[in-house]
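Final report, results section. Input specification for complex C-07:
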Amino acid sequence: MVVKGGSLNEENGVGIKHYRAGFILFLISQAVVFMVLIAVRFLIAGGKVGPYSQPLGVVITVVMLLSAWLAKSSRNAVQAGNSEAVQKRLASAIWLGVLAFALVLIMWTMVRNDGYSVTMPSLEVFWVATGFWLVYVLLGLFVLFAARSRGRLVGYTPDNDWDLEASSHFWTFVTVGWIALWIAFFFL
Amino acid sequence: MAQPLPKGGAAPVPKRVAPWPPVLRAFLWAGIGFVVLAAMAAWLDPSPVSPYLTAVGSVTGWFGALIGWLLGIGGYDYVVRPMMGYPTPRIRTSGWRRYFEYAVDHKVIGLQYLGASTGTFLIAGLIAMAMRFQLMNYRPTLFHYPQDYLNAVGIHGTLMMFTVATVAMVGGLGNYFVPLMIGARETMFPKASGLSIWLVPVGVLTVSMSPLLGQWSTGWRGYEPLAASDGSGLLYYYLGVFALTTSSLIVAINLTSTILFKRTKGMTWNRLPLFAWGILTVSLLNIIWLPEIQTTFILGMMDKVMPLNLFNVFGQPLGYEYLFWLFGHPEVYIVVIPALAIWNEIIPVMGRKSLFARPIAVLGLVFVMLLSGMVWAHHMFTMMRFSEMLPFSFFTEMISIPTGFAYLAVIGTLWNSRLRLTTPTLLVLMSMFNFLIGGLTGLFLADVPANLQLHNTFFVVGHFHFTIIGGMVFSWMAAMYYWLPKFSGRTYSEFWGKLGAIWVFIAFNATFLNFFILGLHGMNRWVSAYPKYLQPENFWTSIAAYLLGAGFGINIIHIVWAWVKGPKVKENPWGAKTLEWQTTSPPPAKNFEELPVVVGSFYTYGKDVPDPVMFPVAQERAPGS
Amino acid sequence: MGSLLVFGLLWVVFSLLGEWGATAWINSAPDGTGPYFGTASNLGVVGAHAFDFLVWVAVPIFVFVVLMIIYAMIRFRSKPGEKMTDAPRQTRNNKVFVGSWILISIVINLLVWLHPNASGLEQVFAAQLPKNNPNPLVVDVTARQWEWIFSYPQYNITQSLNASGQDTLYLPVNRPVKFVLRSYDPFHTYDTAIDVIHGFWIPAFGVKYDVIPGETRILYLTPTELISTEQNPMARVQCSEVCGPGHPYMEANLHVVTGSAFAAWAKQQASGS
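Structure output:
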C-alpha cells in the first residue's frame, strides 16, 4: 500500500485519505439517525405537512447552503495561502449557522403562537426531528470554532488542512441533513 | 475526531497538568456539569412539584455530567485543547495508573474495556443471583413488590447486553488484538478510542442508579407505550444505553478503519485472520444499527419527558417495537459473530490442522451480517396481524444457514486433526454444544404456530441465554485462556482451567435446560410471583444457577491469579501462526520492533509449509538464522 | 475412510436411538401430543404437532454435531506429553462435504418453513375464518392494568365474576369461541393515553395473542377439553407481555365446562349482575 498525496507516511502507509474514509464511516453512521427520523415522520404522521412556516424553511435552507459553501471555500483559501480569508470565511460560516439555529427557534415559537396543539402528530415529529438537528448544529458550530482556533494558533498548509477539512465535511453533513429533513417535512 | 498530526519539529511537551487523579477530577467536573445544567433547566422550566430537580433537569444535567466527566478524564487536556492548536501533554505509558487514566495505546484501552466488562458482568451476575433467589419461592420474598423485581430484570438485561455481550469481545479483545493481528502499531483513531472507554463507566453507573429516579418495569427492551407511563428511572436507562452504545460506535468506526487501512504489508483480504473478519463484520453492523437504536431511545426519552404521543394509542403503539427489533436482532449477531470467529481462530491452532473451507467460514460471517437486518419481526409474532407472519418466518429460518457455516468450518477442521484438549479447546467445543442448543430451540421459536405458545415464556429466556452465555460468554472465556500467555507472559493451571470449564458447563446446562421445561410448563417472563405448581422446578433451577455463579467466580479468580502469579511461559506456547504471537508477551508499546510482512496463510499447517510471517530487516541482519 | 465409516455408523445408531427416545417422550403424554402441554384447544394441537415434528428434525442434527465433538475429542486428540506435530492429513477443502452441507441445510430450512410452519399457519388461518366457526360464543376480552375483564354480549353478561368477585372466564367445550381483544370496554372508565400492550395467553390452549392499545383483534379458537384452573393450573388466563408492576398478578381463572353447565352458569351470571 503506497500512499500518494498524504502527508502522514508512516510505516503502515496511512494517509489523510484514510482518515477521510474513517470520517466518512462516522458520517454514514450519523446519516442513519436522519433516516430513522424521516421514517418516524411517516410512521407517526403519514404524509401530512404540519403548519410550520414554509417561507422560513426556504430561508433556513438558503442560509445553511451559504454557510456550508463558506466553510468549504475556506479550504480554497488555504490552498491560496490566504490565512486571513480562512479566518474570515469560517467566522461568517459560524455566524450564519447561529442564524439558522435561531431561525428554527423562531419557527418553533411561531407555531406555538398560532395556537396549534403541541401533540398534533405532524408537529410532534417536527419538534423532534428539528430538535435533533439543532444538536448537530451545536456540534458543528463547535467543530467550526475549533477549526478556526486551530487555524489561528497552528495554521494550515496546503498539504495538511485535515482538521479544517473534517470540520467542513461535518458542516456539509449538517447542511445535507437539514435539506433531507426539509424535503421530508415540507414537501413529501 | 481530530487526528494526531505530527507537528513540524519537536515541540516542547508540557508536563502533566492533572494535579490529582483524573478519575477524581472527572467525578468533580461531572458533578459541576450536572448541577449547572440541571439548575439551568430548573430555572428555564420550573416545576411546581419539585423545585430543584425536574425530569428535564435530570436529563440535561446528565448531559452536563457526561461532558464534565469526559473533559475531566482527559478530554480537555488531550483532545479539546490539541484540537484547537495547543500542544498535547504527555500520556502515561507505564505503571498500573495508566489503566485509570486517559490512554491512546490500544492495548491499555482493550484491557480497560475488558476490566469494565468483567466488573459489569459481576454486578449484573449478582443481580441475576438475586433474581433466582426470588424465584425460589412463588410468593414475593426478596423483592417485596413486583416493580423491585422487574427493575432488577431490566438492569440485569441492559447491563449484560450493552456492557458485556456487545463490548467484551469487541471493545475488549477487539481493541487489544485486532491491531496486533493485522500488524499495526496503533489503531486509526486512538484519541477517540481513549475517550470511548470512559463512556462505559458512565453508562453502567447511570443504568444501575436509575431506580433512584423512579423504578421502571419494562425490562431491557423498554417497550412502549408502557415506558411512557412507567417510572422516571427509564430516563436513565435511555441515557445509560446512549453512553454505552456511543462507546461501541466509536470502537466500531475505529476498528473498521484500522482493519481497512492499517494492515501490514502482505495482509491481503484472503489472509486476514478470522477474528479480524469477525470484528469487521460486527463493526459494520454496529455502525448501521447503533445510531438507529440511539435515535429510537432518544425519541422514547422525549416521548417521556415531554407530553408527546409518539408511541401511544394516539401515535403508533407498535412503532417503538418495530424500531427496537430492527436493531434488536442484528444485536444478537453483534454478540455472536466474534464468538463464531474465535472458534475458527482457536481450533486450527489446537488441532494443528489447516482451517477447513476458510472462504465459506468468512462468507458465513458476511451473510449473517447481511441477513440479520431482515429477521427482526419474528420477535413480534404475537403482535402482528396474521397476514404478516409468513414472510418474516422465512428469513428467520434462512439465517441459520450462514450461521451453520461456522460449524462447517470447525467440524471440517476437527476431522483428522491432532487435537490438543486444552482448556481453550474444551471451552470452544462446549460453546459449540451450547450454541447448537440455542440454535435448535430457535427452530421451534421460528415456527409461528409453536411460537404463539412459546413466545414470552421461559422457553425464550432459555433460548437466548443459550445463544448469549452459551455462545458468547463461553467463547469469551476460551479466548481469555487462549490469549492469557499473550496478555501477561504467564499461563494458567490446566487442572483448574479444565475444572472451571467443566463446572461452568454442567451448571450452565443444568440451569438453562430447565428454562425450556419451565416455559413449556407455563412459566411466563417478567414475573416475581407465579403459580405454585412451578415452585419445585424453579427451586432446583435456582440451585443450579448459584453453582453457575460460583463457577464463573472460580474462572475469574483463576484467570486473575494466572495473570499475576501464574507460571511463566515461552513466547508462543500454542505454536500459533497469527501475528499477535510474533512479538513479545506482553507486547511492547508499539507492538512490533519491526513490522512483520505476511507471505502466506496463517491457517495452513502440514509438512513443508513455510512460515507465513517475515521480518525482512531482522532477517537481513542475521542471514544465518 | 475408516473414521468416516465408524462415525457414520455411530451417527445412524444414535440418531435412531434419539428418534426412538423422542417418540417415546412424545407418546408418553396422556394425549400423545408430546411435551408441548398446551393442547386443550384446536390451535394448541396445531402447535403441538409442529413442536413434535421439529423434535424429530432436530434430533439427527443435534446428534451429528454433538457426536462429532465427542468423536473428535476421543479419536483425534493428541495424547498428553506427545510432541506437538501437525496433523498428517491436511484437507483444506472437500467439495462433496461442503456442497452437501450447504444443500442439506437449505433443504432442511425450506422444509421446516413449509412444514410445519406454513402448513401449520394455514390451519391457524383456516381456524380464524368466521365461516369455519359457526355459531361462535362471543367473549369480549378487555385487558387493562391489571385486570382481565370478560363480558358475554350474547348472554347479557357485562363482567363475569366468581363468588369472591374475581374476573373469571367460563367457556363451553367444543364450541367455537370468538375472543374480541381490546384494551377498553364501554362499562369502565379508562385513560387511553396510558394504555399499554398486554398478552392474552391461556397456557393450556397453547396460544397467545397480544392486545394492542387502540386496536381490536379477533382470535377464534375451540376448547377441546374439560379443564379448570383448580384442577390444572395451566388452564388460566395470564398476561404474557410485561405491562407494569401488576403484571405477575394479571391472571384470571378459566373453566371449560359442558354446554349445559355453561348455560346454567350464564343464566346465573346474567341474573346476578
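The two ends of chain B are 45 Å apart (CA to CA). Residues 103-565 of chain B form a domain with the Cytochrome C Oxidase; Chain A fold (CATH 1.20.210.10). This concludes the modelling results for the funded period.
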